[in-house]
Write a structure and sequence with these properties.
This protein folds into 2 domains: 241 residues, P-loop containing nucleotide triphosphate hydrolases (Rossmann fold, 3-Layer(aba) Sandwich), CATH 3.40.50.300; 235 residues, 3-Layer(aba) Sandwich (Rossmann fold). The protein is 51% helix and 12% strand. The protein contains 19 helices and 10 strands. The strands form 2 sheets. The chain has a 5-stranded parallel sheet, sandwiched between helices. It starts with 12 loop residues before the first helix and ends with a helix.
């Protein structure tokens, strides 16, 4: 593909001035239109070293409102980034709705420079293709515009530019021994680029190869491409906003896993206290082992209102070193969080390798509360099952232990606990009008939970249904499940 690119294309200074002035006006207009429509725009610049990425970015940003964009320069991951799944640093840099993010190098670094330099394994960079495609598809389905450029120059032209930069005392620092080493492997990187273009150029996020020998020609082509992509993205957003609401298509009937739960299981107080002490001691030691082994742990607590999530979390954390864990409670998304893809707020709080994050409610809100209450569209919650499975698969590929609990109680037991909370003054804060409203939709929530468990319980992130009518039994089962999962992961890692 790249061998057929005509690198002789160029524009004169006059042709450039005549072409770029109207383009710059249109770019500024589109930035305002995207802001008004709440459409995030992501522009990716990849290319050969010294191919003019910085110059193009500089010229592009000169015509934009600086309050509405941010430029990210992607280099080797730092220590903080290496301790999390590799896509974490890109999720955390996404633009809010209506803003622009420009990436000088991006997530494609993994299948290009990291692959070439051997800093990731073959399994890692091969798996990265699927993760990249998932990432871009999820953002586009959420309304984002993604524009991707490969800035292309010949090996001869790159060498000429390297030597010119080295002669300039102010710029010689830009060319390093690593750059020359990669230049000498131009053909190897070229093969990787060809594979990348072929495997990740999709209908809604295609690659644009920019003939970058002539910088004026490159700038014009970049501007024209961004304009076309933004216009299409804004049209797509307008059509989606005008489209009538689609009634949810319920998945096929399946047996309800909650109907098979034995809620009569219980523990006596003495037996509970003995097992609790043993498990807390066991988890305390396991917490230090995962730190040494750099194994991250994610624990998700979901369940009916008044099912005992808070009490179970307290018994878990009571035996842990507070320096090694964090509890992150989630409710309705804030105004800021609504400006991003719904998974953004969960990616931000993933644990570092060797640490534990306990999620008190989680990303499963999309397929439960948001589904039942109509806070998202049918299309959004229906595609969320796939997005969640992909999200958790990436965590598991990084070595994360994922433990997910559904704390289950009967409808009668929930009523008893609600009434107790209302009657006991120091517990009254726990019961709200919303809890009573949710209870009226018990059957709808039960259907949503059943679908959630069956469609997102995987080998790498299985659901554990906890029989919760007896709080003592539920707490012990949850702690034992966590301890067993962590021990199994440590054995696998050793």
């Amino acid at each position: 593909m790249l061998e057929t690119v005509d690198l002789s294309l160029k524009l004169s200074k006059q042709e450039y001035r005549e072409a770029f002035e109207p383009l710059s006006i249109r770019l500024a207009e589109l930035q305002r239109e995207a802001r008004a429509a709440g459409v995030p725009v992501i522009v990716v610049f990849e290319g050969w070293q010294a191919s003019g990425k910085g110059t193009c970015i500089n010229r592009l940003t000169n015509v934009l409102d600086a309050r509405g964009f941010k430029v990210h320069y992607t280099i080797e991951p730092n220590e903080e980034e290496r301790l999390r799944p590799w896509m974490w640093r890109f999720w955390t840099k996404l633009p809010p709705r209506g803003a622009i993010a420009i990436f000088d190098h991006s997530w494609y670094r993994r299948v290009l420079l990291e692959r070439l330099d051997g800093t990731v394994s073959e399994d890692e960079w091969r798996r990265a293709y699927d993760e990249i495609l998932q990432f871009e598809r999820q953002l586009i389905q959420d309304g984002a515009v993604i524009v991707k450029f490969w800035m292309h120059i010949s090996k001869k032209e790159q060498k000429r530019r390297f030597k010119r930069l080295e002669k300039d005392p102010a710029l010689e620092w830009r060319i390093t021994k690593t750059d020359w080493r990669r230049h000498n492997r131009y053909d190897d990187l070229l093969a990787a680029v060809e594979e990348m273009l072929q495997r990740t150029s999709t209908a809604q996020a295609p690659w644009t190869v920019v003939e970058a020998t002539n910088k004026r020609f490159a700038r014009v082509k970049v501007a024209e491409t961004i304009i076309a992509a933004c216009e299409q993205g804004l049209q797509r957003a307008a059509i989606q906003n005008e489209a009538p609401a689609v009634e949810p298509v319920e998945p096929p009937d399946r047996s309800n896993p909650l109907s098979r739960v034995d809620l009569s299981l219980h523990l006596e107080r003495d037996e509970y206290q003995q097992q609790l002490n043993e498990l807390q001691d066991r988890l305390f030691h396991l917490e230090h082992e995962i730190y040494t082994a750099r194994v991250p742990v994610v624990i998700v607590y979901e369940g009916w209102d008044a099912a005992g999530k808070g009490g179970s979390i307290r018994r878990l954390t009571r035996g842990l070193d507070p320096r090694g864990y964090e509890v992150v409670p989630y409710g309705a998304p804030t105004a800021e969080e609504k400006q991003y893809h719904y998974l953004w707020r969960f990616w931000r709080n993933l644990p570092k390798a060797g640490h534990i994050t306990i999620f008190d409610r989680s990303w499963y809100g999309r397929v439960m509360v948001e589904r039942v209450e109509g806070f998202c569209s049918a299309a959004e919650w229906q595609r969320a099952y796939q997005e969640i499975n992909e999200f958790e698969a990436q965590l598991a590929a990084f070595g994360t232990v994922i433990v997910k609990f559904w704390l289950h109680i009967s409808k009668d037991e929930q009523l008893r606990r609600f009434e107790e909370r209302q009657a006991v003054e120091y517990k009254r804060w726990k019961i709200t009008d919303e809890d009573w409203r949710n209870r009226e939709k018990w059957d709808q929530y039960e259907r949503a939970v059943s679908d959630m468990i069956q469609r997102t319980s995987t080998v790498y992130a299985p659901w554990t249904i906890v029989e919760g009518n007896c709080k003592l039994y539920a707490r012990v089962k949850a702690l034992r499940t966590i301890a067993d999962a962590v021990e199994a992961a440590l054995k696998h890692a050793s």
